[in-house]
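README: folding subset

This subset contains proteins for which both the sequence and a predicted structure token string are available. Records are stored as plain text. Below is the entry for AraC family transcriptional regulator (760 residues), shown exactly as it appears on disk.
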Amino acid sequence: MKTRSKYLVNIFLFSLFIGMTPVIMLGFFSYSKASVEIQRKVNEGNSRILEQTQFRVEQVLKTVDTVTNQFIHSPLTISVMELEMEKERYQDFQQIRDGLYKLQAQGLGIFDVFLYNIEKNWLINNSGFFNKIDKESLDLLQDYAQMPAISQWTINREPVSGDGDDLVSVKTVNLIKRMPIISSNPDGFLVSKIPIHEIRKLLSKNVMPGAMMILDADKRVIALDGEDVEDADMQPGQITELLQSHTEEIGSFETELGQGNVMLSYRQSSYNGWVYVSSVSIAQSTRDSKAIGWFTLVACLTICALTLIIAWLGSRRIYRPVRKLYTSVLAESGEDSLLHKNEFESIELSVQRLTQSKFRMGNQIEGQIKLLKEYFFFKLFQGDLRRKEMEEGLVFHGLPAELERSIVLAVEIDTLEGTRYKEQDRSLLLFAIDNILREIVAERQRIGSVIIQDTVGVLIDSAKPGDGAFKDWIFGLAVKIQQAVRSYLHIKISIGVSREIRSPGAAPAAFKESQEALKYRLQLGQEVILFIEDVQLRSSGSIQYPQETEKELVEAVKSMDAGRAQEILHRFISEVTDNKIGCNQYEISLSLLLGEMVRLAKDSGLPWNLIDDKNRSLFGELLHLKTGLEVENWFCDNIIFPVIRFLTQREETQYRRISDEIIKIIHADYDKMLTLDACAARVNYHPHYVSRVFSREMGTSFADYLSQYRLLKAKEWLQSTDLKIVEIALKLHYTNPQNFIRSFRKIVGMTPGQYRTLFR
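--- output ---
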């Protein structure tokens, strides 16, 4: 049988999962950690380079600021600012111009320096001395004068002289200083101009990948790493927009710029508010991490390949015993449905079936053992076991061979009349009572129980010391049983208790004693607990049969008086049970009464099938009854009432037959001389009996019925014939016509003549 190795595949896949998952996770986290670490290092490097660039640029700017401060605070500068530009003061103005040349000569990249006097309206710069300034330049200078700061860096384009006479536009960074510094209304100002390319030189000294730029406080581009701002590939406009949303002085963030993602780092100067920005491509900064990623991928694939080989070999080795067991299961079951399941599902199903089979077999064995034990006690109580069989049964069922103090209880249902149960429920009720006994009597005390016909027998053993204590314990136990049965089943039971026994061999006699004790319920009533030694002590030994009561009962039955017969029967049973006699004597008295009732039924002509339609044993049924009420009901239902019904029916039939015969005679011979005696002789009954029967059936006497019938015939003759009244009277055997007329008028209310006249 070809099978699929599903479990082998599962083991293999699970081994791959266990082996490869840590490798893949380790490779992934290693690559992620390395990428993050490299990016962090790059960002830190960019931040340091950006900081160094800021330091270089600000060092130049601060140096320019310092030397210009020294210049404007020199006595010469202060004194010249108070002079008009005149020829007489040329020497002083020349010295100022020389000072301006010295500022440019200090190697700070200063492109031009000019000194402007607002009040005197003169200007000194590289180009010379200007006593009057054109309007365009004047407006620009006036704008400088309006700046609120005493010292400020700005961006501007200025006209400068080239090698010829042409002017070119050069973007500069200007340092504007008011003079005097502490005055709110300056007299003039000094402007130092640094070309953008000087600032750009400082930016080009950085060695980091990417680009760098400087923005002023208003986020306008000042310089871009080695390039002109207008031609920059760095998209400064987009960068300035991004920086507008970041208010921190130092920071970095990743964004999409141009054709890819970049990391932007920025620093804002506390000196002049400029912002230093560096832009590094993410792809360029993670180039090393990609190399690490490829190396990690190759290493992980190598390890996974080794794991694949090891997992396959290990899975086959682990699967080998499972395969043998699975093959064995398939061979044993022979079911094709197992081929569609994996190995362990098939094995599990097989084990479940074995377990279920074992459980069912265990239940069957347990049930059989229980039945065997019940059968053992059934034969034990019936006395059908030989000594050897009894000893083997005791050993097999784990029962003691010797008992301490034991008795046998016989439990029987008193009656089912007045309950919700029917006679066919008796077996189930006995089974329920047996279960209640098992619940109430402890297992160590209950040796065994069995249901025999209508009796539940149970053998109980106890170590209670003393006769009184043991008997009281048995009585209390019996009371609990009665209460439980009454509570759960709502029926009454009686319990018979045998004498004490010391060995299981005495159980048959004890069971008979307990059943014998229950027979005394005829005298003591229902729901009683009867100890055999107590009820036998009550027996006097002499029988007193109520002969006179029996005769009264026979006469009541013959007279068909059912109520009186039932009353006398109740008195008979009371007289029998009130005597302190043994149960055998009870049975004899009841048997004598049954014999007399059967003889009465036969003498009455009662068909036997009306009493015994199923070939029953009447004596057996009678002796099986348990209470006086049951005996009374049994006699009434089976003997007395059937006899009375038969006699009543027979008498009614006979009365009807006699009455019908008399009526026929009257209708046939009404015109003859008829008497009661003559009619009674014709039906072979006594006249008095015929008179009583006829009156009972017809509701009138013989003479009245005869007179009424003759009167009816007279009416017919008066209406349909011409017979004379005298003739009619003679035909009806009236000795005197006047008697006929008198009788007719008395009954009809008119004379015969008047009647004929009225109806003819």
